[in-house]
User: Which sequence fits this backbone?
């Protein structure tokens, strides 16, 4: 089983290689192959999910082999409860994203499918890397296909959006690169003169770094991740990128890419630099709460559905960050499950917007109205996804938001329930912007004659949305399936942080 | 067979109905089958609940409360929440009302919704509503209760906007639906924060655990104060009290059976149920109790006064509902928890009946809702008329109908607790109630028909006629219940035993002992007040009859003479407009102009793009440095050395 992670990460790459041998005109075969390889990765990841031991807090399925001897860099992969669900989310959403764009992408289809598969490799690599160098390689590698997906298959203003996306994230990652090198060298001074980027080793070494230096490293890592999340006020690349990206690009961008930021925070920034975390935690939580309210208010007034959903992501991801920085079991578990929830709900929302766009080639809310009448099945699915997004109990979003809010409410680190109370107003605002949008798009009389003969969802479109809806309900009704996987790792992290806080030395048992 | 163990089935059947009609309804097509499934699942639920109830009656008092676990819903850290149902005196009464009245309304809807293209969808939503409502009243913890709480809100939203392409007042039905959902969410925010406080204070969200531990707190505790206040904020949303009542009148945009079931008999009483369930928090916070009582009394009188002048048949009933809910909160606020519940039950009967009667009228009048365009329907639809009058008498408080007992009990408890200013408000509200109810009845059913002139009926060859049996039979059953329903709570003063209060006693035992409320002695004052409230009701009714049957000019003169007040009432005190101008419009405008266009696009993105531009410009200059001239490179070189040396020397 030690190669299962490698198998998952590189299965899509095999797909890319296979595509090189396919005639670029043979669109159906290309799409089918793309689907097949991404589905294969999903199937293997299912095995991973089932074999994963939720009671074990440590890294599992670890495989480590020396890669660059002079730098002491290894190919080192493994998953714990925190990364497992994100791996699952990635392998689950990629085939659905491909299927969602089955008919809407016609330009150089082979390159498109290749880019999507490469993107999947990068994302999976990020979530399983246990070596910072390897992590950085995947982190950057993933930028390239996303850049092309926006820049080639995007909307009118795609070049601007692609470059903005690229430079914004690049700026953050360069800071992170500096911090990684610094961290590796600093570790060598504490580690008997050996440069290291091994994450497990750094879990023990990094927290012993003096606060002054920790702070700089925390800020460098933190900024890089904050841009990716994106946290207020580093979010302005997101609306542009989403609006210009093709549907599948938006789905992956919102569904998985943004989670790399929040994942980075909980995987590296927090456990590496606990003292700096304690120092800056109220500010981070403050930005998160501003993001929740600000994102919601700005989402409310968007005339463009895609921009609305994009800003809603700023709001939703604010919840995730708040939960993670509450550093309570409820908060962090909520944050993790909310990453998955946001991937499902917002991913589905972008798919839905894409379905409307495929039919009408506009994203302006004012162009629609009364669509329920002509597309009743679509209306039902859209409604369920919307309700998931506004955190209706019984669906997934509520579980995440509730845990985050209750975790933040009781958090000693945050010290005041004010963060949680302010964040909870986001729950009211979410109902406003989503239902208002839903009303203007779906209800009322059809006023635009172009909408009178829209076709309801096809079998393919149902096949894209139904799996997501199943998980939306599943997580809402029986979240234990997923929470149990992340429980032990979260608990261990929380205990470690408590020990750092109280000044107790901890030893890591790998 | 111990039936309470099967309480899960009561909840499950409506859900099955929802799934069957929701997934297959469009294929089933037959209204008969859809309607039978939809009502049948509720009927089965009622039957099981009734058996549980009678078994409970025959078991000893200490053995009447049971928790039935279904599965573990959410478990993280110290938080562990079961999907579990608590069967006890309080929840079984609510369950009986929800499934019983719910069943009758489902049956009625079979006829009312006949021919609607969304027939299956309607029954699916209605079943889902019952499912959620049962979760709300049967939950053994706050979180599951909250699931039901928001779930019924969702169904309310879906059903208010059921005719999604229909116009309603200034907008569409969906405007009303959205308003309901969002206003409710404001209340839910309070509920949510209350839950967090409960969790950090008691380490649990489970009713038994929390209430048990709360009993150890002293009266006036600050945390408990906030918990009680925030829970009450939640209740003002769902149960349409000041300041969050504004959604309920608009909720009338939904089909009438929905108004009867959700916006009169069941969902809107959820707040009353919740406060009663969590009565210990309120008993421990006298100041919140006072707030509850005042808000209740004010809501009762405010809504009743608006009801005086409205012309929409359902609108009047909506304000009447708000007003009656006010009475329930008034009861809770003075510590008469069981009495509040008693009024929930009787109100469910007569208010459901009023709405269904109104529906029958609207049905006959081909969707006309304006009572000024009705009149003289008495002879055309005798069953509707008779049952409507019974309900109107019941709500007015005429003995021995159900409303008399519950309302009189509330007034007495308010007086007995020493809140005479509130008593005056409540008594005045009762007078208004009797008046507007009979204004409504008379304008609708009596006098000369005004509908034949209306252009809306000109196209019709036939005249208004009585509704089919499937609609009138539920009316008759509810009428019977409106008459006899009060007998479950005949006070000692009238030789009764106040059965419902005794039945509920164990639920409120702790709260009552904190409030030191015992069973009072019968005193002469009670008889005097009772007589007084009957007189008030009778006068109100007679006054309405006098004006609207004989001297319509009085009404016209009054409204002309006091046109300011009339205008104020007609426009519902302009509360919607005030909310619009102070909260909604500013928020939307500020978000659009200030936050989005100026701050987000202008400042933040401006800074980002500005930096990019700046770098672009600067690099335009620095680029010139690499012009390929060796001389200039040498010059840079020398300059660099000088600068470095200078720095070294200075240090």
Assistant:
């Amino acid at each position: 089983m030690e190669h299962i992670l490698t198998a998952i990460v590189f299965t899509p790459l095999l797909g890319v290689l296979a595509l090189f041998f396919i005639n670029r005109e043979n669109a159906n075969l290309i799409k089918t192959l793309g689907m097949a390889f991404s589905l294969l990765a999903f199937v293997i990841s299912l095995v991973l999910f089932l074999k994963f031991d939720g009671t074990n807090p440590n890294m599992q399925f670890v495989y480590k082999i020396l890669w660059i001897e002079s730098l002491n860099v290894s190919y080192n992969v493994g998953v714990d409860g925190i990364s497992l669900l994100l791996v699952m989310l990635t392998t689950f959403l990629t085939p659905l994203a491909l299927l969602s764009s089955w008919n809407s992408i016609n330009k150089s289809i082979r390159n498109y499918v290749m880019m999507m598969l490469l993107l999947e490799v990068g994302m999976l690599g990020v979530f399983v890397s246990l070596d910072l160098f390897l992590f950085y390689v995947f982190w950057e590698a993933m930028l390239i296909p996303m850049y092309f997906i926006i820049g080639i298959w995007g909307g009118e203003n795609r070049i601007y959006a692609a470059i903005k996306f690229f430079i914004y994230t690049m700026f953050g990652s360069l800071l992170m690169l500096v911090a990684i090198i610094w961290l590796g060298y600093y570790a060598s001074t504490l580690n008997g003169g050996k440069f290291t980027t091994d994450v497990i080793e750094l879990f023990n070494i990094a927290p012993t770094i003096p606060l002054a230096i920790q702070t700089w490293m925390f800020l460098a890592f933190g900024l890089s991740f904050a841009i990716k999340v994106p946290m207020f006020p580093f979010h302005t690349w997101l609306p542009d990128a989403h609006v210009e990206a093709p549907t599948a690009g938006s789905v992956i961008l919102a569904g998985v890419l943004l989670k790399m930021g929040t994942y980075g925070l909980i995987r590296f920034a927090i456990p590496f630099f606990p003292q700096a975390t304690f120092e800056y935690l109220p500010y981070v939580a403050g930005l998160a709460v501003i993001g929740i309210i600000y994102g919601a208010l700005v989402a409310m007034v968007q005339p463009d559905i895609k921009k609305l959903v994009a800003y809603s992501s700023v709001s939703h991801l604010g919840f995730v960050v708040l939960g993670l920085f509450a550093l309570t079991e409820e908060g962090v578990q909520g944050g993790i499950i909310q990453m998955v929830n946001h991937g499902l709900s917002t991913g589905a929302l972008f798919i839905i917007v894409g379905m409307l766009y495929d039919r009408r080639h506009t994203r302006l809310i004012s162009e629609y109205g009364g669509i329920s009448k002509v597309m009743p099945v679509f209306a039902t699915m859209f409604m369920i996804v919307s309700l998931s997004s506004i955190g209706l109990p019984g669906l997934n979003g509520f579980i995440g938001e509730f845990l985050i809010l209750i975790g933040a409410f009781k958090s000693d680190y945050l010290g005041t329930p004010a963060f949680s109370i302010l964040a909870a107003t986001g729950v009211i605002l979410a109902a406003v912007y989503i239902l208002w949008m839903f009303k203007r798009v779906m209800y009322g009389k059809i006023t635009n004659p172009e909408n009178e003969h829209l076709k309801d969802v096809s079998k393919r479109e149902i096949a894209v949305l139904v799996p997501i809806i199943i998980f939306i309900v599943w997580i809402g009704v029986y979240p234990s399936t997923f929470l149990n996987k992340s429980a032990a790792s979260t608990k261990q992290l929380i205990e470690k942080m408590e020990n750092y806080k109280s000044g107790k030395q901890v030893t890591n048992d790998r | 067979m111990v039936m309470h163990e099967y309480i899960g089935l009561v909840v499950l059947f409506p859900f099955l109905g929802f799934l069957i009609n929701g997934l297959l309804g469009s294929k089933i097509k037959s209204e008969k089958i859809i309607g039978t499934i939809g009502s049948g699942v509720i009927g089965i639920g009622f039957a099981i609940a009734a058996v549980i109830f009678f078994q409970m009656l025959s078991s000893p008092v200490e053995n009447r409360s049971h928790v039935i676990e279904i599965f573990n819903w959410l478990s993280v850290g110290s938080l562990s929440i079961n999907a579990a149902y608590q069967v006890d005196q309080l929840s079984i009464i609510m369950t009986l009302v929800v499934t019983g009245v719910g069943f009758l309304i489902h049956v009625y809807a079979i006829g009312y919704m006949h021919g609607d293209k969304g027939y299956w969808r309607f029954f699916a939503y209605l079943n889902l509503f019952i499912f959620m409502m049962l979760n709300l009243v049967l939950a053994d913890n706050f979180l599951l209760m909250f699931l039901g709480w928001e779930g019924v809100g969702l169904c309310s939203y879906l059903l208010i906007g059921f005719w999604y392409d229909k116009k309603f007042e200034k907008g569409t039905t969906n405007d009303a639906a959205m308003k309901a959902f969002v206003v409710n969410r404001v209340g839910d925010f309070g509920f949510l924060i209350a839950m967090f406080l409960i969790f950090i204070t008691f380490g649990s969200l489970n009713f038994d655990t929390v209430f048990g531990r709360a009993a150890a707190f002293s009266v006036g505790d600050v945390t408990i104060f906030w918990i009680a206040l925030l829970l009450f904020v939640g209740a003002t949303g769902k149960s349409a009290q000041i300041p969050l009542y504004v959604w309920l009148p608009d909720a009338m945009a939904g089909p009438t059976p929905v108004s009867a079931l959700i916006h009169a008999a069941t969902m809107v009483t959820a707040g009353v149920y919740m406060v009663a369930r969590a009565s210990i928090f309120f008993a421990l916070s006298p100041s919140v109790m006072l707030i509850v009582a005042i808000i209740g009394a004010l809501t009762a009188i405010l809504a009743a006064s608006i009801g005086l002048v409205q012309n929409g048949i359902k609108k009047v009933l909506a304000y009447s509902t708000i007003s009656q809910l006010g009475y329930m909160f008034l009861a809770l606020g003075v510590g008469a928890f069981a009495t509040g519940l008693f009024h929930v039950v009787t109100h469910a009967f007569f208010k459901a009946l009023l709405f269904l009667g109104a529906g029958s009228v609207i049905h006959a009048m081909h969707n006309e809702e304006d009572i000024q365009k009705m009149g003289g329907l008495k002879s055309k639809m005798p069953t509707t008329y008779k049952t409507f009058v019974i309900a109107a008498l019941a709500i007015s408080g005429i003995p021995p109908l159900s409303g008399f007992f519950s309302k009189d009990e509330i007034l007495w408890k308010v007086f007995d607790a020493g809140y005479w200013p509130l008593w005056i408000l409540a008594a005045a509200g009762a007078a208004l109630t009797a008046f507007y109810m009979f204004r409504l009845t008379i304008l609708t059913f009596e006098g000369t028909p005004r509908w034949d002139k209306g252009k809306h009926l000109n196209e019709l060859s036939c005249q208004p006629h009585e509704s089919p049996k499937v609609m009138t039979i539920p009316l008759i059953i509810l009428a019977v219940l409106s008459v006899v329903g009060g007998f479950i709570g005949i006070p000692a003063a009238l030789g009764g035993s106040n059965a419902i209060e005794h039945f509920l006693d164990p639920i409120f035992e702790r709260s009552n002992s904190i409030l030191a409320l015992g069973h009072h002695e019968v005193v002469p004052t009670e008889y005097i007040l009772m007589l007084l409230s009957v007189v008030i009701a009778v006068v109100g009714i007679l006054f309405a009859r006098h004006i609207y049957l004989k001297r319509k000019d009085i009404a016209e003169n009054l409204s002309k003479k006091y046109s300011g007040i009339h205008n104020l009432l007609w426009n519902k005190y302009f509360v919607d407009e005030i909310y619009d101008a102070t909260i909604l419009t500013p928020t939307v405008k500020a978000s659009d102009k200030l936050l989005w266009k100026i701050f987000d696009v202008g400042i933040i993105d401006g800074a980002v793009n500005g930096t990019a531009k700046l770098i672009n410009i600067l690099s335009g200059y620095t680029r010139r440095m690499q012009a390929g001239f060796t001389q200039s490179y040498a010059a840079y070189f020398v300059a660099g050395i000088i600068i470095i040396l200078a720095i070294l020397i200075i240090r």
